[in-house]
Specification:
alpha+beta, 2 domains, five-stranded antiparallel beta sheet, transmembrane, membrane
Length: 495
């Protein structure tokens, strides 16, 4: 019996020693992972920029004001998320900043729902004019107009908006040298596609576009006209890491991803390594339309952005290299036509949603979906599966009978509002590369590679549920109590 008590006591001391050793090793590994320099040249993490500038009086507040009020980042940061970002910066929690916010999408959704209930009237835009949500250029819904695409566009050259924040920090990206020269034609084509899409609205006057002797009343008819005149039409489903900052520091790109907890566990290589949650940067998904021909050459993209617009847009600013970019699917011919037809339907559906729901703040972002939702829905229609995460749209808003097809597509895709962990195929499919060794976000490449290998072996685990955490916690406490009890019994017997 004494031997049993002694073994229990020794086991308890060994357990404590192992725990202490594990804590040291774990902290060292995590520090090394967090502080690892990016492998991409001319690029720094947000934490490095702020570490260097946090001592400058007033700069932190200036930067936070730029983030909170910016067209892109401001809309995505709910009050609670913004408070977290502020506390990380002011508290100099650089490792936390490099994995901001690190929440599950369910938790993020909760802050949006709370913000909608508490701050809805304060956060929503002052007006809900349709022009605020769909870019129409010179066209209006009230006039019956015709645009002749055989004539050159008069939209002018791209003017990139770059804001100097001081301290060698700027916000905004310059022109893409390959796509910026196409801006005039791309801008007009995007506006024409938007206006053709809105012909579906009840109070819209008829709008037409002509090209090569053919007349189009819908986006897909315009694709027919271009194809009939020998133009090559390609529609690509493209994924990137979302860039929520678009900052530059001392001439370098600044990484500012937005991390989500995938609820998948990164496998450990050694027994003493604790498994951790796989945090992945939020992806940005969009459809890119490339039109190539003897006179008209244009590149147009479609997505629902954090500016509240679900529309065709130009695509001519330079991406920072760390966001990467992957063509998950490419469509030509009849398939390209079908994708454009569906995108026209989504443009009209979101226009109706904006007009019918003025109470939704943040431009409807999160509540009506994120950029992935429409792409997921069309991917499911075109391929029979969807490989994007997250999808956040509350489908009860998609109820107008005039948009029945869009409503059905949105209802069919997986939802990420109920706390259920997403399928691994959606997490990995959202990444902007199929070659995970090329990921340059510090610490992410190894986690993704290890997790994907475990997924292929059928060994990838999900994060434990609440009851599993409770049971594991109780087992841990019981082991400590048993160890202490055994040690005391052993000491008494020695006495």
């Amino acid at each position: 019996m004494r031997r049993i008590f002694r073994d229990v006591a020794v086991a308890g001391r060994v357990s404590f020693a192992r725990s202490a050793a594990f804590a040291v090793v774990w902290c060292t590994l995590m520090a090394a992972q967090t502080m690892a320099a990016p492998t991409l040249p001319n690029t720094v993490p947000l934490s490095q920029m702020l570490r260097e500038l946090s001592a400058q009086p007033g700069f932190t507040e200036k930067l936070l004001a730029a983030i909170n009020g910016g067209e892109k980042a401001g809309a995505v940061l709910t009050p609670k998320l913004f408070d977290l970002l502020r506390s990380l910066i002011l508290g100099k929690d650089w490792s936390g900043l490099d994995r901001f916010p690190g929440w599950t999408i369910g938790r993020v959704n909760g802050t949006v729902d709370l913000g909608t209930r508490i701050f809805g009237e304060k956060l929503k835009p002052a007006t809900r004019a349709l022009a605020q949500w769909v870019t129409l250029g010179p066209y209006t819904l009230e006039a019956a107009e015709t645009e002749d695409l055989d004539k050159p566009s008069n939209r002018g050259e791209l003017k990139a908006e770059i804001t100097d924040l001081g301290a060698e920090v700027s916000r905004g990206d310059g022109p893409d040298p390959k796509l910026a020269p196409l801006h005039a034609e791309s801008q007009r084509l995007a506006e024409v596609l938007n206006r053709l899409s809105l012909n579906r609205l009840d109070d819209a006057q008829s709008f037409r576009a002509t090209f090569g002797g053919r007349t189009a009343h819908t986006p897909e008819e315009l694709i027919d006209a271009l194809s009939a005149n020998g133009y090559r039409i390609t529609v690509s489903d493209v994924r990137y890491f979302a860039n929520f900052g678009h900052f530059h520091y001392k001439g370098q790109d600044v990484m500012m991803p937005f991390f989500l907890d995938s609820q998948l566990m990164v496998p450990a290589d050694h027994w003493w390594q604790r498994r951790r949650h796989l945090l992945v940067p939020v992806a940005h998904a969009e459809y890119e339309l490339m039109v190539e021909g003897p006179r008209l050459h244009a590149d147009v993209t479609f997505y629902f952005g954090i500016d509240g617009r679900a529309e065709f847009r130009t695509n001519d600013l330079l991406n920072q290299p760390w966001v990467m970019g992957r063509h998950a699917h490419e469509y030509e011919g009849a398939q390209a036509r079908e994708v454009i037809r569906l995108l026209g339907g989504f443009t009209a559906a979101y226009a109706r949603l904006h007009l019918a729901n003025p109470q939704i703040p943040f431009g409807g972002y999160y509540t009506l979906g994120v950029c992935q939702d429409a792409v997921s829905a069309i991917e499911l229609k075109m391929t029979g599966k969807t490989t994007l995460f997250p999808n956040t749209a509350q489908t009860e808003f998609f109820s107008d009978a005039k948009d029945a097809e869009v409503n059905a597509l949105m209802a069919a895709i997986p939802k990420d509002r109920d706390g259920v962990a997403p399928a691994p195929e959606r997490v990995f499919g959202s990444l902007p590369t199929a070659d995970f060794s090329t990921i340059t976000v510090p610490g992410l490449r190894e986690d993704v590679q290890r997790s994907y290998a475990a997924h292929q072996r059928g060994e990838l685990a999900r994060s434990p549920g609440v009851w599993q955490w409770v049971l594991e916690g109780l087992a841990f406490i019981a082991s400590i109590i048993l160890s202490l009890w055994g040690y005391r019994r052993y000491q008494k017997m020695q006495d």
